[in-house]
Write a structure and sequence with these properties.
Layout: H1 9-17, H2 26-47, H3 74-87, E1 93-98, E2 105-106, E3 116-124, E4 135-143, H4 146-151, E5 169-175, E6 179-184, E7 190-195, E8 200-205, E9 216-218, H5 229-240, E10 251-253, H6 258-268, E11 271-274, E12 287-288, H7 289-302, E13 306-308, E14 325-326, E15 328-331, H8 333-344, H9 354-357
Parallel strand pairs: 1-3, 9-10, 9-11
Antiparallel strand pairs: 1-2, 3-4, 4-5, 5-6, 6-7, 7-8, 11-15, 12-14, 13-15
Residues 70, 124-128, 220, 256-258, 274, 286-287 line the site of 1,6-di-O-phosphono-alpha-D-fructofuranose.
């Protein structure tokens, strides 16, 4: 079923590079290495139980947890290794960091060091893997600080603490009914579908745009008692539907695999919230800034959507640590802006206000 009129990812990247006559091709080569890692992970995911890589990672039969304190799946560990093996040798990277590694990964001494930093979540949504629900890999490419490039020294945490606005590229691979790659190199967002016969990503979704308005939202409602007032207000208004202040009905979705939610929103609009809440005061949010919020944020903004902490644009946040967590709201622009507005209007969003209290389905 080869459709010869479609560009391959390689062709797409080469055509993009022609716009920059000085470009060396290193950047494209890095993106292709990353996508090769994604193809390998797609294959491991597709084999499921047959591949022997399901279940928890159990080095000493006691299981293992990552730096976040989360149980690691075998596929989390395997995917992390695949990312490292496919990218560390090439001479394009100065270092990398991942959800699964406490500290930055150094490029081994036998390989040259390059100009870029790679940050990734090798298998987002992996607690869904055993129930055969879509998972994905998320990545972000940053330029290494000039001091790192000039000296070739080992990378340290501080080298990665760059705001999302400085990302050179961001993307994710979604391992669903089809494997898709969504990529931005800072000029819109393009979607590629893996042709399983050719082993090539083919351009199937050029110039994706997120509709500015939506009637669909995604939030883990089991956390409702921990939400801050502006989030409660927003959700209550959505739930009130046609007869409430929004004057229209809303649909709700929750996959618990952020990469899959991001994809749904890219395809048909919507808003995703994993906001800061009061559940655990030591954690200002559930999701991670550098390898979840920032790459998905860049993709959303490049597709005409918006990404925010609820209080400020995600792309402007200056990270303070490698595994920093943050409240995340993204999707259809007008909806995200509304949520930001509610955060700026605390007086109207107080808990217990009659308008919202009377309509809340989630009130304790
Ligand atoms: P896992 O990778 O541990 O499954 O976490 C997935 C995730 O980071 C993100 O993809 C989901 O949106 C979110 O966590 C789901 O969190 P809840 O389990 O609290 O709903």
């Amino acid at each position: 079923m080869l459709q010869t009129n479609r560009s391959t990812l390689t062709q797409f990247l080469i055509e993009e590079r022609r716009r920059f006559p000085g470009a060396t091709g290193d950047f494209n080569a890095l993106i292709l290495d990353v996508t090769l890692a994604c193809k390998a992970i797609a294959s491991a995911v597709a084999y499921g139980e047959l591949g022997g890589a399901m279940g928890n990672h159990a080095p000493d039969a006691g299981g293992s947890v990552n730096v976040q304190g989360e149980t690691q799946k075998k596929l989390d560990v395997l995917s992390n290794e695949v990312f490292i093996q496919r990218t560390e040798w090439s001479g394009h990277l100065a270092g990398m960091a991942s959800e699964e590694m406490d500290l930055p990964h150094q490029i081994p001494a036998q390989y040259p060091r390059g100009h870029y930093l790679l940050v990734f979540d090798p298998l987002d949504g992996s607690s869904n893997i055993d129930v055969n629900v879509s998972v994905g890999s998320i990545f972000s490419v940053l330029r290494a600080p000039q001091a790192v490039i000039d000296s070739g020294r080992d990378v340290v945490e501080a080298d990665f603490l760059q705001p999302g606005a400085t990302q050179m590229a961001a993307g994710y691979a979604l391992y669903g009914p089809t494997t898709m790659l969504i990529l931005t190199v800072g000029r819109g967002v393009n979607g590629f579908t893996l042709d399983p016969n050719l082993g090539e990503f083919m351009l199937t979704h050029p110039d994706i745009k997120v509709p500015p308005d939506t009637q669909e939202f995604a939030i883990n409602a089991s956390n409702s008692r921990f939400w801050e007032a502006p989030v409660k207000r927003y959700v209550d208004e959505c739930l009130a539907g046609k007869t409430g202040p929004r004057g229209k009905d809303f649909n709700m979705r929750w996959i618990a695999s952020m990469v899959a939610e991001a994809h749904r929103i890219l395809m048909r609009g919507g808003v995703f919230l994993y906001p800061r809440d009061t559940k655990d005061p030591s954690k200002p949010g559930r999701l991670r800034l550098l390898y979840e919020a920032n790459p998905v944020g860049m993709i959303m903004e490049q597709a005409g959507g918006r990404a925010s902490t609820g209080r400020e644009p995600m792309m402007g946040v200056l990270p303070t640590s490698l595994h920093q967590r943050i409240g995340l709201v993204f999707g259809s622009k007008n909806e995200v802006e509304r949520i930001e507005r509610y955060h700026r209007e605390p007086a109207q969003a107080k808990e217990g206000e009659p308008l919202f209290a009377s309509r809340s389905l989630f009130r304790d």
